[in-house]
Write a structure and sequence with these properties.
single chain, 365 residues, four-stranded parallel beta sheet, binds N-carbamoyl-L-aspartate
Length: 365
């Protein structure tokens, strides 16, 4: 039985299979209208969501399945202090598959390791958002017909934008991809993405603060919202919130076949005048997200049918347990009762360890 916690849980071949399945669903949705008859998806959303939750729900309904939903941090027993592990064990008894969004980094991993049904990470704090990446990949595949040899610009909040982290991880496995990372210095990509993903891949990457300078070189431009809810300091948010606004004028120098993506919600990063430009793909992403979630639900339900073995996400991994403590206040290990502090070596020579749940670097090494 499998979860989807991190986009790298799926191989490139599996991504191709999911894309092919989503394309088939788009072509002939009736064929899949009873594919999940009698199955129940629990959608646990402890953070705001419009698209992700509704697309999971719509996906499950379109497969003939049923949905149970929890929305808002205050409406379930987590507000009474219940652990994620206990919540996951409980919800597994009511459902065949779980999609969960939670503000703490690593929360989906803990849910997945404790649930007895497949768990899909629908966003864990500022960490990962693999199903948005599925939507992004289907969009890029449909627009560009390939993932290799693309120049992809990521613009805005690259520090807290979990969709950015997951899409960079996914694309870093294809050859000839050039990443152009456009952000204020304060919102640059997290160190683990830089050192553990980009530097370890064959991809090239370039950082800049100027969207105008690089826009002519891009095949794909991935705009993002400045993630207000993740800032520790509201004044800092106010200072950075209008860092980038894509306007019709700025697009004049862009390629004619540029694809403009945005995971949405948009605040003001893209002028609404651009919505009618054929290069705007963000509402196509919304639609593609539903089909990829349908494909993913089918795949994970099938896997669970064929393989009933209990999940142990730590199995076979090199780990260091309780030698360090994670000091990230937004890591699940800061609140979850009796959760062991698990680190993984990422550079054995230099003795660098990162938290297994949130990727924060162990401080005293
Ligand atoms: C994103 C998210 O929740 O991370 N939204 C989404 O799921 N489509 C992006 C965002 O909130 O800015």
């Amino acid at each position: 039985m499998r979860n989807l916690i991190d986009i790298l849980d799926l191989t490139c071949e599996e991504l191709d299979e999911l894309i092919a399945l989503a394309e088939d669903i788009i072509k002939d949705p009736k064929k899949y209208a009873h594919a999940a008859d009698g199955k129940i998806l629990s959608a646990l959303f402890f953070e705001p969501s419009t698209r992700t939750r509704l697309s999971f729900e719509s996906a499950m309904h379109s497969l003939g399945g049923n949905v149970l939903s929890v929305t808002g941090a205050g409406s379930s027993s987590t507000a009474k202090g219940e652990s994620i592990a206990d919540t996951a064990k409980t919800v597994s008894l009511y459902s065949d598959i779980i999609a969960m969004r939670h503000p703490l980094e690593g929360s989906a991993f803990v849910a997945g390791n404790n649930a007895t049904v497949p768990v899909i990470n629908a966003g864990d704090g500022g960490h990962c958002h693999p199903t948005q990446t599925l939507a992004d990949l289907l969009t890029i595949s449909r627009e560009k017909g390939r993932f290799d040899n693309l120049t992809v610009g990521f613009c805005g909040d690259l520090k807290y934008g979990r969709t950015v982290h997951s899409l960079i991880s996914a694309l870093s496995r294809y050859s000839g991809v050039k990443f152009v990372l456009i952000s204020p210095a304060e919102l640059a990509i997290p160190k683990y993405v830089r050192y553990e993903i980009l530097e370890k891949s064959s991809a090239s990457f370039f950082e800049t603060t100027s969207l105008e300078e690089v826009i002519p070189t891009l095949d794909v431009l991935y705009m993002t919202r400045i993630q207000r809810e993740r800032f520790f300091d509201e004044a800092e948010y106010e200072r950075l919130k209008d860092s980038y606004v894509l306007t019709v004028e700025k697009l004049e120098n862009a390629k004619k076949d540029l694809s403009i993506l945005h995971p949405l919600p948009r605040v003001n990063e893209i002028s609404v005048k651009i919505d009618s430009d054929p290069r705007a793909c963000y509402f196509k992403q919304v639609e593609n997200g539903k089909y990829m979630r349908m494909a993913l639900i089918l795949k994970l339900l099938q896997d669970a049918e064929n393989d009933k073995t209990k999940k142990d996400e730590f199995a076979g991994k090199k780990l260091v347990v309780n030698k360090f403590r994670c000091d990230n206040p937004r890591c699940i290990s800061s609140t979850e009762q009796e959760l062991e502090h698990v680190f993984k070596p990422v550079d054995e020579e230099k003795q660098i360890y990162r938290c297994f749940y949130c990727e924060a670097k162990a401080k005293n090494n």
